[in-house]
Amino acid sequence: MKLCTIFLLAALPVQLSLGEGIQPADIAAPVQEVLQTFEPTTLEDCAALAIGAPELMRYSMVSDFIETEILELSYVDHGLDYADFSIGQFQMKPSFVERLEAEICNHALLKLQYQELTEYPNDEVQAIRAERLKRIKSDRYQQLIMKAFFDYCRLVYCDYLDQLPLPEVVGFIGTTYNMGFDRQVNQVLDYQSLRRFPYGARYTGEQHAYGALSTAIFTQLIKSLCKSTYSTSSQDCYAGPVRNNCPW
Asked: Which of 37, 97, 103, 153 is the most exposed place for a label (fewest CB within 10 A)?
């Protein structure tokens, strides 16, 4: 992350950095859940988790269990043609994770870094599907999957993202997470301004743009991270492994 961006971000008051009419109270619940469940300790953790964190605003553990128990059995036995459904705090679909695994395998450095996501203890197809579902519901694997998707997007959209400060990178990749794979930069940018979350395009009440929520949550997460480190230096507080440039 560029040093000028580090000090600029550190100097911004919360109400300005959230943007898009988003107030701290709007995102207090997902921020708190991320902090308690995933315990981010680095800037990279905060960035990766923030791209999926808006999904926590509409996630219900009870309804998730009731709605997916039968679907899980259908997916394990028959695959995506019979069942593809959102599951877990970040509402990941098996098709999303399958696609991400394939993309990781297509890039040597991603494959090396995220080998744990692409290898399974059993080669049998149904066993792999069952293990994949187990991972999607695991806090540790959810965080690892979000990190992998974050790095995958930084690779795919490298030329564009390299021009942006990290909060904007998080907003862009958050929008991509909400849209899915195979989107062009201009498609992501067009969608990024639409306020359709969490209830969709037909809802006429107040909503927010998904990417703006990701950026706002990221801002709050790093503020909490800075407080937890008791750092007196902005540079020390925001130092971390995230590279805002083309890593590959």
From this structure: 37
